[in-house]
Specification:
This protein is of the alpha/beta class. The protein is built from eleven helices and ten strands. It has a single domain, classed as Alpha-Beta Barrel (TIM Barrel).
Length: 306
């Protein structure tokens, strides 16, 4: 039943547990000159980015703000796909999803041809990707083929990150609660000691030799401002970048939260100013459209992902 639901929502299912879906910003980039804030922040070309997951049916949290259908049937993966197969079929799925844009007169033909040869993989579509036992092998295969990789994790599987080899081009850890009380209410963990596991991940981050980003998805009335609490957590992680971003009332999150839970961009900016001042970090960019601010450890600016 869940497979049928995902197919109706525009997913391409890959193998036993993989999934690919065109990002909104991939479509916008193909139809015009609008692109994802990740392109502005890190140099990722939105029209050449695959949004995918190796674990579409698996997650250990049921976050209220998740805009995916997140009544996940499984916490642990008992069946999964070979990394080479997963990568090959994800590329095929992306091309199939994009193919219809080739006949659109508003789409630049050169840009369409580039999109058919993707260069970046965002391992972040749905579920918790660190539950996939062969994640390192998948990243290695992607790098071997010339892809850059962004991995987004909820941080509750520190052992997987500690053993991950190679590391992705950029590692995102979502820190979406300032303390355990809020975490339990907002993230609805499905496994014991999830908060403690997240803290273990934050302690691990400084030792990981890749670009590290902390993502704060901020939900008004739930997990903000709590600036001092976030300062303590970010001080443990010592990330290269921090992205405070507004929750958006989209998808299935509309059944759990309401439009009043979406912070305005000025509220995100105010939070970011206070957070960066306390940490000694620097605001280096922002996207008003996506209600997100980029905070950097270095004042010199942004390291482009190549």
């Amino acid at each position: 039943m869940q497979r049928e639901l995902l197919l109706r929502q525009g997913y391409k299912l890959v193998g036993k547990a993989g999934g690919v879906k065109l990002c909104h910003w991939t479509k916008e980039s193909l139809r015009g000159d609008r692109y994802c804030y990740k392109q502005k922040f890190y140099g990722i070309e939105s029209h050449r980015c695959i949004q995918m997951t190796p674990s579409v049916f698996h997650c250990n949290l049921n976050c209220l703000f998740c805009w995916r259908y997140n009544n996940y049937p499984y916490v642990e993966m008992k069946e999964w796909d070979d990394p080479s197969y997963l990568l090959e079929k994800s590329i095929e799925a992306q091309r199939a999803l994009i193919s219809g844009f080739g006949g659109n007169p508003k789409v630049n033909k050169e840009k369409f041809e580039e999109a058919m040869e993707p260069k970046h993989i965002a391992i972040s579509l749905a579920g918790e990707p660190t539950l996939y036992p062969e994640l390192g092998e998948f990243i290695e295969e992607a790098h071997r083929k010339g892809f850059t990789t962004f991995l987004v994790t909820n941080g509750t599987n520190p052992k997987a990150l500690e053993e991950l080899d190679p590391l992705p081009t950029q590692l995102y850890v979502s820190v979406t609660a300032p303390n355990e009380r809020v975490f339990e209410a907002l993230n609805l963990p499905r496994v014991p000691r999830a908060w403690e596991s997240l803290i273990e991940t934050l302690r691990l981050l400084p030792s990981l030799g890749t670009r590290r980003v902390i993502r704060h998805t901020l939900v008004k009335g739930w997990n903000m401002p709590f600036v001092e609490d976030y300062v303590k957590l970010d001080s443990i992680a010592e990330p290269d970048f921090i992205e405070p971003k507004a929750y958006m009332n989209l998808g299935y999150s509309r059944y759990r939260l309401n439009p009043g839970n979406m912070p305005k961009h000025w509220e995100i900016l105010k939070f970011s100013e206070e957070l960066s001042k306390e940490l000694g970090y620097h605001i280096v960019s922002e996207s008003k459209e996506s209600r997100v601010v980029l905070i950097s450890k270095r004042k010199s600016g942004i390291k482009i992902a190549q």
